[in-house]
Amino acid sequence: MAENNTIDALKNVFSESILHHEINAGDQCVVFVSPSQNTEILSWLREEPTQSYDLLVDVTAVDFGEGLPLQVVYQLWSLKHKNSLRIKCELEIENLTIKTVTSIWKSADWLEREVYDLFGVEFIGHPDLRRILMPKTYDEGHPLRKDFPLRGRFSRAEQTRRALSQDYHDYYTEEMLEIGGEPAVSSPKYDTDKGNAS
Amino acid sequence: MGLNRDGVNTQDIFEAQDMGYSGGHKGIEMGGGGPTFLTTKIDFVVNWARKNSLWPMPFGTACCAIEMMASAASNFDLARFGMERMSFSPRQADVLICAGRVPYKLAPVLRRTYDQMMQPKWVVSMGACASSGGVFDTYSMVQGIDTIVPVDVYVPGCPPRPEGLIYGLMMIQEKIREETLADHSELRSEDPDRAGLPEAGDEDISALSGPFGNSTQQEYLTGLAQTKRPDRPKDLLP
Amino acid sequence: MTHVSSIEPDIGSEHMLINIGPQHPATHGVLRLVCELDGETVIKVMPDIGYLHSSFEKLGEYRTWNQIVPLTDRMDYLAPLIYNCAYVMAVEKLMGLEVTERCKIVRVICMEMDRIFSHLLWLGTTAIDVGAFTPFLYAFQERERIYSLHESFTGARITTSATRVGGMMADLPDGWIESLKDFLDTVTKTLDEIDSLLTTNAIYLGRTIDVGVISGEDAINHGLTGPNLRASGVPYDLRKDHPYYDYETYDFEVPIGENGDCYDRYLVRMEEMRQSIKILHQAIDRLPEGPINVDDPRVSLPSKTDCMNDMESMIHHFKLITEGISVPAGDCYFAVEGSKGELGMYVVSDGGYKPVRWRIRPPSFVNLSVISKLAEGHLVSDLIMINASLDIVLGEIDR
Ligand code: SF4
Question: H helices within B73-161, ranges in order?
Fold first, then answer.
C-alpha cells in the first residue's frame, strides 16, 4: 500500500494545507495537514470516490513533552480500496483547539471526547464535549499529557477523599437531572475541612 | 471433612457434642427413633447456620471477575459451600467479594454497596488489584480497597485461581465459626455517620498506597516518564 | 436524602430517569447506562463509562517495550492472547522485524483459540441475559479446557503474557497440540448442542430478531467493526482485507449477516467460532519445526556460551537485560482482527527504551458508542439484550 495515490491527489486539491508526509514502519502513509483545514480535508477524503476513506478507525493524540507540538492523529481506512491512511495535525501546546469531525463520522463522538478528557484538546463544534473516562469533578488535569505525573497530582489521601465525597449531582449531567425532575444545581464546592461535601 | 446424609457437616456435630451435650445417644441421627433434639450453644447454631449459607455479593470489575465466574461454574462449583446464590443486590448479601480493579471513580460505588449490606457482613478482597492496586500504581486507581471498606480476607494472585477464592471464602467460614454473640455488639458496631467515608485515615492511606519500589524507572520526584532515548553521537554531527 | 422527596410529588411527568449500573449483573462489567423511559420504552440511553479506567496507556509510557506485554492481557481478559500478539506485532512492524515461520503459526493458533475463548464467554453470558442458564454452563465447560491449554502453555489461566518482541515466551510444551486437538473435537460438539438449544428456540428468537437493528451504512459511520459490523452485511475482516501472518492462505469464510439485528450478531459469532476451528485445524497441520524466537541481536539474548567467551556478547546481554530493547523512532499503527472488532495498536517511539505513546484502538469502546442509537424505542429488557449482543469488555473500553 506504499504506492498510494492519495498523497498526490491531496497535494493537488489542497496544495498549501498539506504540510508534508512520511512513510513509516515500512508502508504506512502519514500525512501532516494544517489543523485549520482538517474537516475539509477529511470530508474530501471520505466523499471523493477515488479515495473513499469511509471508516474512521481511530482518533487519538500524541504528546511528546518538552513543549513540542501535540499531534492529533486520525486513522482512516477505505473499505472500497482497502487502503489505510494516517492524518496528523500538529497543535501548539498553548492552543489546543481543532474543529470536530463528528459531522463527518459519528464514531468521532466518543473518540474525541476521550482525547479531550485525557489530553485537553478542545474540539470546536463537538455536540457533547465533556469528560468521558475520568469523573466529572476530576480536578487534576489531563492525565496523558507528558507533564502529568503517573500517580496524579494530589496525594492518595486527597484523591480518596475527593472520590468519596461526590454527591449525586456529580453522577448525572444537567440533561439527566432535568429528565429526572431535579433542577440542575451547580455541584457544591469541595470542602476540605468536612471531608464530605453533601 | 465428611458430610453425612443430611448434608450436615459431621465435624460440626462432633464439635456440637463437645460444646454442649446431646440429649440422648441417638440425638444426632435425626429421626432415628431416639429423642430428636440437641442441646447446644446458641453461638454454635447461629454460626453454623450463617457460615453454611453465605450469600456472596459479587462486586466483579475486571479480570478477577472472570475467575469468580469460573468458580461459580461447574468445574469448581461454589455451591458446594452454600454459596450458590450469588446475590446481586447488596441488601440480601452477606459477603462482598470485590474482584478486580477499583478506580477512584468506582470507589464511592463500592463504599455504597458495602454500606447497603446488612450486618453481619464480611468482605473478601480478591486479587492483587483489589488488595493493593497491583500493577496499577497510577493516578486513577485505588491502592487497595482496605482504604475504602474494611476487609476480612485478602486473596492474593493476579488473578487468584478459583481454588484460591474458594479457600478465601472458607477462611471467612472459619472466621464466622469462631465468632460469639457476646462479641457481636462490639464487632458489628457501625457508625451510620461514617457511611460513605473512607475506611482508613489520611496517614494510613498514604502508608498503604506508597509507591512500591521504583521498577518503572520514572523520575522519582516528579513522577514523569523518560524514554531514555540514547543520544547517538552521529545524531549530533552537523 | 432530600432530593427524593422533591421528585416524588411530580406525578404528571411522564418520563422517568433510571440508572442501570455500574454494579449490575446485566451490564457485563461496570458499565453504567442512564435511561430515559416512557413507561417501559426507552427514549434515550446515555452510557457512562470510565468506571474501570486503570490508565493502561499512561502506565505503558513508564514501561519498557517488553514490560508492556503483561499489561495487554489485563486489558481484555476475555481474549488475552489476541492482545498479547497484537501489541508485539505492532512493535515488530515498527522495528521491521520478521518473526520465524513457527512463531507466526503459533500466534495464529493463539489468536484463533482466544477468539473461541472470548465468543464462548459472550455466548454464555448472553444466554443468561435471555434467561437460559444451561448454555453458560456448557460454554464454561469448554472454556475450562482453554484455561488449561493456556495454563500448560503460559503458566496462567487468564493473564497469559505469552508473547515477547521477536517471538514467544516459550515454545509449545510437549503434547499441547494433542490437547488442542481434543479441545477442537469437544468444542465442536458443544457448539452443536448450544446451537440446538438457542438457534431455533422460540424465546430466543423473540428476544433477538429485529431487536437493535443497524444498517451497514450506519454501522460504518459509527465505526463498528468485527462481528457487529459483519452482522450488518459489511464483509470487513482484517484477516481477509489486510492479511497478516498469511491469513490469505488459510481456507475460511467470513460470515456475514443480513439484517444487523441481535440475532444476526449471534449467528455471525457462532459461525465465526466454527471458522476458527477450521483455521486451527489447518494451522496445526502446517505447524513447522524450527526456532520460535528470531535470531536478531536487537531483541534476542546471546547464548550463554557466547556471554562467557567474549566481551561483546556479555555487554550486549547486559544492555538488553538492564535497559531493554530499543525501537527506532517513528510510529506504527497495526491492527488485527480481534474477537470484538478491529484491534489496533498504535505505538510511537523516539528511539528510546520506552514508548512515547502506546495507544490501543479499542474495538468495544467504539462498538458501545452505538448503543444509544440501537436501543431507542425498544423496551428495557431489549436494551439488556442489545448491550449483550454488542459483546463489550469493560477492561478495554475504559482501559
Ligand atoms: S489482580 Fe490481576 S487479574 Fe485481578 S483484576 Fe487485577 S490485573 Fe486483573
Answer: 107-116, 127-132
